Amino acid sequence: MNSGWHCPLYFLNMKYFISPRQDIGLEFQQDWLELSITEHWKNPENQVRNLSSELLSAWEIKIENEIIECALGSSKKFIVIDSPSLRACASFSVWFRSIVDHQIELIVYDDSYTVDVELQCTTSNEDIINAFS
Length: 133
Prior knowledge:
By secondary structure, the chain is of the alpha+beta class. The protein is built from 3 helices and 7 strands. It is globular, with a radius of gyration of 15 Å.
């Protein structure tokens, strides 16, 4: 029996958010996001699973052999990404940028908002990783 204190992994993860830089009244539609996720990660190993949380919708996705949890905020104005892997979070962010109208200015930022990165069509995983490292 292990009597030591156990810290669940989710307490160790940094959360990242994707949203427009300014409130422009944009709402990410739940059905659109769910369809986009399931179409992109069709591989059974990468199957999306609805997680039922206090957020509007949440999914668990396997990216580059890492699990991320992503969720649509109840306001539909932001996406939350949670994973111990910054690389997997960056991959999701770059993918998300590719499915949103390129005229909409998106940023990815950490939960303490110490860093933000503008997600452009040319933003790479390495750009995001270097900014947060």
